[in-house]
Amino acid sequence: MTSSSPSHVELRPGAYADSVALLQVSRTLQQLSGVAAAQVAMATPLNVEVLTQMGFEVPEAATANDLVVAVRLTDDAPPDALGRAHAAMEAALATRTESASVEQAPSRTTASALRSAPADSLVLVSVPGPNALVEAIDAVEAGCDVMVFSDNMPLDDELALKHAAAERGVLVMGPDCGTSVLGGIGLGFANTTEPGPVGLVAASGTGAQQLLCLLDHAGVGVTHALGVGGRDLSAQVRGLSTRAALARLDADGSVELVVLVSKPPADDVATEIRAYADGLATPVELAFLGPGRPDLTAAAEATLRALGRDVPAWPVHEPSTAREPRGGHLRGLFVGGTLCDEAMLVAGAELGPIRSNIPLEAGLEVGSDLTADAHTMVDFGDDDLTAGRAHPMIDPTLRLEHLARVAADPSTGVILMDVVLGHAAEPDPAALLAPAIAATTQPVVVSVVGTSADPQGLDRQVAALVGAGAQVHLSNAGAARAAVALTLAGGAR
Amino acid sequence: MTTRTPQLVVGVGADLFADAVSGQAVEVTRVDWRPPMDGTAVDLAGVAGDPLRAAANEQALAAMLGVQALLVDVGPASEVLGLQEGEFLHAGPPIGWERTSGPLRGALMGGAALEGLVEDPEDAVALFEAGTSVSLEPCHHRGTVGPMAGVVTPSMWMFVLEDPATGRRTHCSLNEGLGKVLRYGAYAPDVLTRLRWMGDVLGPLLRTAVRAAGPVDVTGILTQMLQMGDEAHNRNRAGTLMLLRDLAPAMAMSGADSADVGESLRFVGANDHFFLNLAMPACKLALDAARGIEGSTMVVAMARNGTDFGIQVAGTGDEWFTGPAQVADGLYLGDHGPDDANPDIGDSAITETAGIGGFAMATAPAIVRLVGGTVPDALATTRRMHEITLGENPRWSVPILDFRGVPSGIDVTRVCRTGILPQINTGMAGRVAGTGQVGAGLVTPPAEIFPAALARLAERARERAAPRGAQASGARSL
Fold first, then answer.
1. C-alpha radius of gyration, chain A, whole number
2. B239-289 pLDDT tens trace
3. Which of A104, A240, A375, B95 is an S-S bond match for A330, by CB 3.0 to 4.6 Å?
4. Between chains, do A99 and B374 touch, taking CB under 8 Å as contact?
5. Domain coordinates of chain B in residue numbers?
6. ipTM of the complex in this document
7. Which tens digit of pLDDT belongs to each residue from A142-188?
8. Which of A125, A111, A15 is nearest to B411 (CA)?
9. How many CB atoms lie within 10 A of CB B280?
10. Hey, what CATH class is B67-281 in?
11. Which of residues 25-44 of B touch A (CB under 8 A)?
12. Is residue A282 a part of any domain in this protein?
């Protein structure tokens, strides 16, 4: 700034704008070419002092109710610079930013979303496991039931969550809960079934889905299917959610029979749960799956008999041309962990040890390439294979790749697979799987876990798979037995 | 209790599952979930699982919201705080002279001259460097808050606020106005002259008036001013005039010299920020009620000393969690620009801690223009603050948001979960001692202090749970 540069000071009595607006106007003027300094302000003592320091002479008469416009031009300012500064000032004083329509941002936490939610809302958590407790406990503290689909939740987190829920009478389904059906609404991977007399408590998602579908085929619906997560009946968690779920179903007048599906719990936990179930008014069928125990299909049959219903013949669809068994290993490729377990139990009893990424016994692991020179069954839904990618019920890529490898392996005698239909599963699994099956030469047996009301269309899926050359079962255990028979017929190694 | 068909499903995580529920004709609310601040997942889970947390936070929020702050007296700091010669209070977390910023230095130098410890403020530098006859202590440690530099010396006159339910008190100096003032680090002769006049004339007159008129309900004025366009941090115009309304009659009838009364009324009325120094101690009085509640994750103080930004949390005692104070984003006075501004300074962020100031931006849309924002920005800011707070203040409401209460009780865990930082409205002091105010704008705390506080909360929760935790980690899973 030089003292020779032209300064202009103008008073505007009666004009008023708030200081924030004026600071913006000043900034606008300061940015004009040819303007060395500019200040538009109410002539308060403070502002007069500021203007004086900037080298402007403010008239003595100025009061706090007068607007002062002070502009100093650069020496090389164009002749119309002052006029342009004036125009810019008028424009800036008159400028109003148009209000955009007020759209509310979505809530960033579960707690915040629940503030305006009705009391009987349900929360469905599927964030990564290490982050799941924080969201789930928001639900518990708001008094809402919560389903935690997330896996890999630390054990301490699960304990903290379930203790907090027990204190407040809230139900925690999960963690690692794949399936629940509440009053006909499917959560997670769930099949569409009619309401009915059965209440289901399940520590296994696909186990629950198999039961739902078999019962549906027999014309029996479920009131609710409450998932509790795979670890609920462990020695540490001791069935905290299982008890809460049993109590819920016991209190529900429309439930005639409760079925509890799980892997066998730790011995003392099984005893506690049995004692708890015996204390309820509603009868409870315990279906603990394991070696020498009834499979899921047998559990469905026992349930039907307990209700006094007939047990139907479970449907089997044969391909038009049966493929000849040619000998070799049985190769199972599953998306459902419990379905894989069940198939290993059924097949293992006939064929001997089955190698797997989720083996029934230590020492039977497959290699990192998921293969072994033996009967093998792979669960593509296992945590290790879903880290960083979607579940195989949503994204079939990994299993399809492996299917091609297995089919090309001369030691493969029979191929066994599951297809799980229902909400959240891929919209048309047969679209990619049927051509892949058609490209194989071995006998292929598939269990399709679904109901006629499922969005994918059970009949359409079955027809496509049968058309590709597969033998299709509704019963997973039935499919496993058929696959064993084919393996033995071909001459198992 | 039985299970029913859910009327609403709140989905947090994969959209696929929310879509599947929505496809079954059930109403779905989706949470816009994002990963938490880096490295906080384990501590967040640890604190979420703390059995004390929920009840402790409820207690902390209720304690804060239950306090009514009354202005009961005005008096010199030597009297109301027992401040001794050579004792200096300052804003923000503790700091030594060697790390002080320009505006705090300027205010301390001016304060030393005001107290007669030195003739020339410049001579005070040696005094503070030696440190033998003077001491520095945060206002917060003495039941006090101070705007900007927040320097309090024994002869300065203070507002005294009291919670009638408990008798607890907080204090704050009298506001000097804007521009070249001590709290912005100015210490020129006219600054000291004004402070002496405030001690000789204004303070005693206010004391007479407060004692004669009876306690002033500061919380009540805050309730009203929030409905009159003030957010009580950068805009205190309505509050100041309501205070005058309450005290002017008693000032006029005090028997004091009418020229002094007139000058005092003019001084208060001309200073839009006069009420800030009542809003701040009222907020502190409310927040102090929530201190020392084990397990609570609620922030009870945010304060800056011009170098560090510090927070204190209900569940972590008197510990400060500090990080570097940021420079505000805003508009500048006169020729000043960003290079002239000192980093954030002052205890005035106590207003945001209590749910007003930047948190009540929606009620004072003019303030958002400090950063060139719009009215919808102001509404969005207040709504965004609801994402990181425990509840709402039923007393302090925002008309434009359908009288929704202001977002109250900053939750350390929600800040870490969302990465949303508290929004603070602030003035900007010049970086160089003696400059005074250079602008005003918006600022946030340094992000890292929230994970630091969270880590301590998690540590305390783990220590409390130690017996059970040891057992659990010794057990094998199936």
1. 35
2. 999 999 999 999 999 999 999 999 999 999 999 999 999 999 999 999 999
3. A375
4. yes
5. 1-33, 53-64+291-464, 67-281
6. 0.91
7. 999 999 999 889 999 999 999 999 999 999 999 999 999 999 999 99
8. A111
9. 34
10. alpha beta
11. 26, 29-36, 41-42, 44
12. yes
